[in-house]
Write a structure and sequence with these properties.
By secondary structure, this protein is of the alpha+beta class. The protein contains 13 helices and ten strands.
């Protein structure tokens, strides 16, 4: 019905509205006649004709426009915002016409100002869902929304009141990424991980902006104006939370890897500790070789000491290969951490560097230890050969001369 009234007003050429009445004097065009026909049975709530004279080629009209919930004409956007308290509750009125914009809510195309105003209304609806408390009854022109900040060091917890009275100045600023708030508050996403934490973070971001501009008279205008800061604060808090969550996991992985590889590397040396006891025992064979008077016994002792040295060298070589495999495995796992080390907080960076350095040092120590043990493992065979050469030198010379003579 209200669209018929708007069609008549437009057909009359959008005349000036005086005390809620529009007047027309002139030729009855086809557009005017069509609009009049649509308004023939118009209910009184949508307006009424105070004068209508239809002569042959002349038409006089005085029409009182509606001014109630059935329809309302506003001269400007400023008047529309000032006289519609429902905007402060996120409710965009219907059956309105704004002459300044030549727009009614039944039009298919909306001016940018109306789109912006609808975004503000949507923001108010979302903030009402986000707030820790909502007072809907104290003011007819909006809500009173409550936001809070937790204690921070010496700062006690604080609560802030956000009245949602809309000022036309909110249209001077652009509201972007409301979909982020809609996603967080959508009930379909209630089971998503960390959703309650995300709600808390954006709630705190709104509260922090209110705290910063608390002295300004229109806090809703502040929120709209500083909406980018609200989102930036939220994203920073979310990033910190995610990183802390991720870093804690990384810290545990690093600590566990340090324990695992440290234990395995220590175990490599422990595995051969018992076997290396054969080395000092084998040295006793040199004493027996020195005291023996039988060449056959001497041969058996030299052969036994040679076997001891070969076995020990083989064991040490195998353990060295195992150590290299463990260090390679450690490096494969920690290469991923090394690539991202600069993205971690300083404390975790230090932990990673200490762990890598300690495992490297332990690996180097094991390598040097194995080299030393390899050298010691040669003592039985070298000692036996030297001792046998000195003790049986005459026999060795005789044997060599015999071989040459043959």
């Amino acid at each position: 019905m209200f669209s018929h009234v708007v069609a008549l007003y437009r057909a009359l050429g959008a005349p000036t509205i005086e005390d809620g009445v529009v007047s027309y004097e002139g030729a009855p065009t086809a557009e005017i006649i069509s609009a009049l026909r649509m308004c023939d049975e118009l209910p009184a709530a949508y307006g009424k004709f105070e004068h209508l004279s239809d002569e042959a080629d002349f038409l006089e009209i005085e029409f009182r426009l509606p001014s109630n919930e059935s329809g309302h004409f506003y001269s400007s956007l400023t008047e529309f915002v000032a006289r519609n308290g429902s905007l402060g509750k996120g409710q965009f009125p219907s059956n309105v016409y704004i002459t300044e914009l030549r727009w009614t809510d039944s039009d298919d195309i909306e001016p940018p100002e109306i789109k912006s105003l609808r975004c503000v209304c949507r923001l108010i609806e979302l903030l009402a869902l986000l707030a820790i408390g909502v007072d809907k009854d104290s003011s007819p022109d909006g809500y009173n929304l409550f936001f809070a900040l937790p204690p921070d060091g010496a700062k006690p917890p604080r609560t802030f009141l956000l009245p949602t009275q809309v000022d036309v100045k909110v249209l001077d600023y652009e509201l972007n990424h409301l979909s982020l708030l809609e996603e967080i508050l959508n009930r379909k996403n209630e089971n998503k991980a960390h959703l309650s934490e995300r709600k808390l973070m954006i709630r705190m971001a709104v509260a922090s902006v209110i705290e910063k501009f608390e002295s300004e008279p229109n806090l809703l205008l502040v929120i709209v104006r500083e909406w980018r800061e609200v989102l930036a604060t939220y994203r920073a808090n979310l990033q910190t939370y995610v990183y802390s969550f991720s870093f804690e996991r990384v810290r545990r992985e690093v600590a566990q890897a340090e324990i695992d590889y440290g234990t395995k590397l220590s175990g490599v040396l422990g595995d051969i500790a018992g076997k290396m006891l054969a080395l000092p025992i084998s040295l006793a064979g040199l004493v027996a070789l020195e005291k023996t008077t039988s060449k056959f016994e001497g041969f058996i002792l030299v052969l036994g000491l040679a076997v001891v040295s070969v076995v020990l060298l083989a064991i040490l070589h195998n353990q060295m290969l195992q150590t290299e495999r463990l260090l390679h495995s450690f490096n494969v796992i920690f290469d991923d951490f090394k690539d991202k080390i600069k993205t971690y907080p300083p404390k975790l960076q230090r932990l990673l560097r200490i762990t890598i350095d300690q495992v490297d040092k332990q690996g180097q120590t094991l390598t040097r230890t194995f080299r030393l043990l390899k050298g010691l493992s040669l003592i039985p065979i070298l000692g036996a050969l030297v001792l046998a050469t000195i003790k049986y030198w005459d026999g060795i010379v005789w044997l060599l001369m015999t071989i040459r003579g043959v």
